[in-house]
Amino acid sequence: MKTSIATVSVSGNLQEKLEAIAAAGFDGIEIFEQDFLADDRSPREIGRMIREHGLEITLFQPFRDFEGLPEPLRAKAFERAERKFDVMQELGCDLALFCSSCHPQALGGIDRAAADFAELGERAAARGLRVGYEALAWGRHVNDHRDAWEIVRRADHPAIGLILDSFHTLGRGIDPETIRRIPGDRIFFVQLADAPAIEMDLLYWSRHFRNMPGEGDLDVTAFMRAVAATGYAGPISLEIFNDQFRAGRPGSIAQDGYRALINLMDDVRRQEPGLVLDLAPMPARGTVEGTAFLEFASRGEEAETLRALLRTLGFSRVGRHRSKDLGLWQQGTIRILINEETRDFAATAYNVHGTSICDIGLLVASAPDTVARATALGSGAFAQPLSPGQLDIPAIRGLGGSVMHFLDGSQDLAKVWDREFTAQGAEVHPAAGLTRVDHIAQTMTYDEMLSWTLFYTALFEMEKAPMVDVTDPDGLVRSQALEAAGGGLRVTLNGAETHRTVAGAFLSESFGAPVQHVALESADIFASAEALAGRGFAVLPIPPNYYADLAARFDIAPDRLAEMQRLNILYDRSGDGEFFQLYSQTFAGGMFVEIVERRGGYAGYGAPNAPFRIAAQRRLMRGKGMPRR
């Protein structure tokens, strides 16, 4: 299977696009005519440059408004085609995309269009070239791949074939199963794109809101399963028109595209086991059983402030690393590491972000399989020199400059805490009833949210909740929740559109540190809140107006409501489920801790309370003399 991507999918000039596409691992490119025309090199020089990057030109596109034209427009269309054939030969490309006509004077008729393509096939074949015909979803007369196939079938020329695009089929609601009736050798090329489910004009939807397979709501997997069932063995390519991608970093967008393609084809192989696909095998998506540890990079007084916070939260220092400046704190199954090393990855993270969570450890079914899948999807494996007695724990580089380590039940990895840590310097403190990590909240720019979503859902078995808007007085934050089966890993991705929001301010202050807050589960949040208050925990104060509104919205006993107000506990309800939460004040440039309790199967994250939490944080920021962003 050859992987390809259209140059229009990636930002930058042609040189930058090629560098990013090659680095991501693609085999080839569809060269978009505008990218070719905007470059000052000759077609021959451009073709050579593409091949020097280790890429081939899989498709030259697009040629518009060809078939069904009356004279003299018909003759002019053939002249234009001949000129494009000249360019293709200089580039070193043998396949062109002709999309169904939108010309206002184009005439309908399957036979008329087939006759035009039969003649075009003769001209193309004389030059050793081929033409693929694609039905645009908004084509004037042809907007369905079934009609396009009938035209190709009647043209009956070996140089004329069909091009399929998942958006044009799925965007119009056409059943992709109809593709199975098309002979695979008559399909010349396949383009893929996903898109969010939005009711709007098809052309506008296509030109601005396409995204990578797995990032939207179209059933691209079903489309590709049908294509694969035909025996098609040509390139699988991405053609993505997206305003965010046009403004994104070329390397990141290309890497997302490669991850999306490989993940999609792995899904196709698993859902259609009888198909023979030229795809290197890789492990299935991993299951996450829990969070093994959270590692802070910190130093000096900031590290001492962090230790003081852990003490007020009821954590005990249970160990110190045998050969590194690394302390281990624990409560329930929650393990927090404070890394004060000056020469490892944590040191680099601290120098860039300040005190921050630089590493997340996850409990998975198989650590080696998780890393194998991640690297097959384009993630880089992570390694650094091991200190004496230190285990080589499988790890990858995540997004946002972070690292993820993976532990499983294997004999070596299960003993990491006993083998690497001693009880030296232990501190025992009364626990506050915190049991496990409920969820991790990561912050990024809104433009990066799709990348993060794809990263998690391609690597792990995780479900996406509907995206919600969180209102900040100075802007909007988009929030996307992801959850592994059984709640072993919950992640909320918060996309900031401006630095003026609390989330955006955190990104600015921390120079892009990804984890803004961690939610810790309590078996009894009221008991935990009482314990925390007795230790001087700096709780985020919530105003009385919030509780007056709760009394109006929910049937809460007055004594319980008074207790919630005294302890600054927030509340949400969904069906029979209840959710209680309280927050710490911010530290380390905008990080904070959340304590939560879920009752009755509540599955959300208290999204209705987010505006009140943000307003309370802003009041404290102004009270401490911090600028209002």
What does this structure look like?
This protein is an alpha/beta fold. It has three domains: 3-271, Divalent-metal-dependent TIM barrel enzymes (TIM Barrel); 288-422, 2,3-Dihydroxybiphenyl 1,2-Dioxygenase, domain 1 (Roll), CATH 3.10.180.10; 434-623, 2,3-Dihydroxybiphenyl 1,2-Dioxygenase, domain 1, CATH 3.10.180. Helix content is 36%, strand content 24%. It is built from 22 helices and 25 strands. Strands 17, 18, 19, 20, 21, 22, 23, 24 and 25 form a nine-stranded mixed beta sheet that branches. A hairpin with a 5-residue loop joins strand 14 and strand 15. Helix 5 (110-126) crosses helix 6 (145-155), helix 9 (220-229) crosses helix 11 and helix 11 runs parallel beside helix 17 (449-459). The chain starts with a strand and ends in a 6-residue tail after the last helix. The model is unreliable at 625-629 (pLDDT under 50).
Strand-helix topology:
Blueprint: E1 3-6, H1 14-24, E2 28-32, H2 33-37, H3 43-52, E3 56-63, H4 73-91, E4 95-99, H5 110-126, E5 130-134, H6 145-155, E6 160-165, H7 166-170, E7 187-192, H8 202-209, H9 220-229, E8 236-238, H10 243-246, H11 250-271, E9 288-297, H12 300-312, E10 316-321, E11 326-331, E12 334-339, H13 345-353, E13 356-364, H14 367-376, E14 395-397, E15 403-407, H15 411-414, H16 416-420, E16 421-422, E17 434-445, H17 449-459, E18 462-464, E19 468-472, E20 475-484, E21 490-496, H18 502-510, E22 515-522, H19 525-534, H20 544-553, H21 558-567, E23 570-574, E24 577-583, E25 592-599, H22 610-623
Parallel strand pairs: 1-2, 1-8, 2-3, 3-4, 4-5, 5-6, 6-7, 7-8, 9-12, 13-15, 17-21, 22-25
Antiparallel strand pairs: 9-13, 10-11, 10-16, 11-12, 14-15, 17-22, 18-20, 19-20, 20-21, 23-24, 24-25
Helix pairs in contact: 1-11, 3-4, 5-6, 9-11, 11-17, 20-21
